[in-house]
Each structure stands twice: as structure tokens, then as C-alpha cells.
Amino acid sequence: MNRPQMTRPLSELRGPVRALFSDVDGTMTTGDRIEASTYAALERLGEAGVPVVMVTGRPAGLGYAFMKMTPVLACVTENGGVTFVREGRKLTKIYGVPPASLPEWRRRMTDTALEVTNKIHGARLSSDSKYREVDLAIDWNEEVSLSKDDANTAVRMLTKAGFLASRSSVHINFGPPHFDKLSACMTVVRQVLGGDGNDLSPYCYVGDALNDAPMFNGFPTSVGVANIKQWWDELAFKPAYLTERPEGAGLRELIEHLMKHR
């Protein structure tokens, strides 16, 4: 993929798009919640024929709640570890690794997490790790405050131990090196949207953090909400377009734009 790095204002994005894939923390949320105006915008977009897929590093337990309480078509959780899709009234889970392998992966992740938290003062497992099925997360910027250097040290330790580790705006997610947000989204395109999983050009992705970089590289139509500028120099791949407003307001800005070009 490796697209040239050239970010343009959102006004230059031309539609239509077949579906919107959206990060949650810092993109769909403002602060710690999805505002009523953002929820209403998501409803309008879906009713206009553009389905929404949530894509998050948050745990499978929260993804199940999202699927029950929001109008989204599917929800990628744990950075691709567990994906929920609708099949009529039933929710189906797609795992990023064979379920039979999970106990051994969990043992290895727990042992390595202990090494990381023993070495880096103040680091600990995220409060939502108890609701995770495939990955785990080290809290660096949600309920604790680690420096970027400490967070990067944790990423290096986890990577050296054989895990795929990525830093979001709040957590360092790590798990088996067999999936990521992008591979899970490609699965949603194939199995839910009926498209070619290798061709993401008909779809749009929006995000705000370092762990969205593979998505910015994989989706030709990728958007960063304005608060992503705090990570700009660290991004391996930058979004194709940038909103003027941050967080939920930036997502609403994007939805308004997509509605005009549907």
C-alpha cells in the first residue's frame, strides 16, 4: 500500500463512500462520552444508506454493548482481536486467532505484562483488561500518566516478547501478532459489506491516534480528526484528509460532508 504522504483539508474529499469505519476514543467520543449530537449524526448517516462500523482498541465486552446500544453495522474491538457482526437479530463474533489458542496466549501476555509493570514505575494493566478476550492493555494515559518515553519502552518490551503492540491515545494494546485493525476491517468488507477486502477505496476511515496509522495507510479515503495533530510527528502514516474540529465535533464535520456527497 504505502501511499504518498499528502494530507488535504476535508473540503477536498469527494464521495460517495459505501461505509464509514470510525475509531471510538477521541474520534467518536468527546472527553469520555459520545455526545447526543454525535449519536444523532451517526443515526442520520445510517438512515441515508451509509453504514457505520466502529473500530476500537477497547475490549470485546464493550463492543458487545456498542452493538446492542448503537446503530452500527459491525464493531471491531481489541484492535482486531474480536469483531462483532449482525446476522439478523443475532450477534456473531469473529476472532483474530483460533479460540483454542487463547489460553496459552493469555498466559504469555499476563507474564509479560507483569514484567513490564515491574520495570516501568506507575504502569499497570488497564481497568478494562478484565473484559478482554484476545488482547491486553497497559494503561499509560487514561487512569495513570506515564511519559511518552516510558510508553515507548513498554511497546519495545512487548514487541521483543513476540507481541504486536500499538499505542493509542490512552492504552498500549498488545496481543498475538496475527491481526490488527486493518485486517479486521478487510474481513468486515468481505463478510458483511460484500466487497473485495483488498480494495478499500469505496470506504472511509476516520481516527485520531497512533494505532490508526495502518488504517491511514490502508484506506485511500482516510480522515484524521483535528486532535490527531498532537501525535503528528510520530505517525508512520498520516491521513489523507484532516477535519478542522477535534473529537466528536470533527466526526460530525465529516458526517455532514459525507451527507452532502452521498
Short summary:
The chain has helices spanning 36-47, 60-69, 102-119, 148-160, 181-191, 213-218, 247-260, and strands at 8-9, 20-23, 52-55, 74-77, 82-87, 90-95, 124-125, 136-139, 164-167, 171-175, 204-207, 221-224, 241-242.
CATH architecture of the largest domain: 3-Layer(aba) Sandwich
> How far apart lie the N and C ends?
26 Å
> How do the strands line up in the largest sheet?
1-13-12-11-2-3-4-5-6
CATH topology term of the largest domain = Rossmann fold
* CATH class category label of the largest domain: Alpha Beta
Quick one: CATH superfamily of the largest domain? HAD superfamily/HAD-like
How many domains would you count in the coordinates? Answer: 2
Would you give an account of this structure?
This protein has 262 residues and is α/β, with parallel strands linked by helices. Helix 1 (36-47) runs parallel beside helix 7. The protein contains seven helices and 13 strands. Strands 1-13-12-11-2-3-4-5-6 form a nine-stranded mixed β-sheet, sandwiched between helices. The longest helix has 18 residues, at 102-119. The model has no long low-confidence stretch (mean pLDDT 95). The protein is globular and about 50 Å long. Helix 6 (213-218) links the parallel strand 11 (204-207) and strand 12. The protein has helices at 36-47, 60-69, 102-119, 148-160, 181-191, 213-218, 247-260; strands at 8-9, 20-23, 52-55, 74-77, 82-87, 90-95, 124-125, 136-139, 164-167, 171-175, 204-207, 221-224, 241-242. 46% of the residues are buried. It has two domains: 8-96 and 179-260, HAD superfamily/HAD-like (Rossmann fold), CATH 3.40.50.1000; 99-175, Hypothetical Protein Ta0175, Chain: A, domain 2, CATH 3.90.1070.
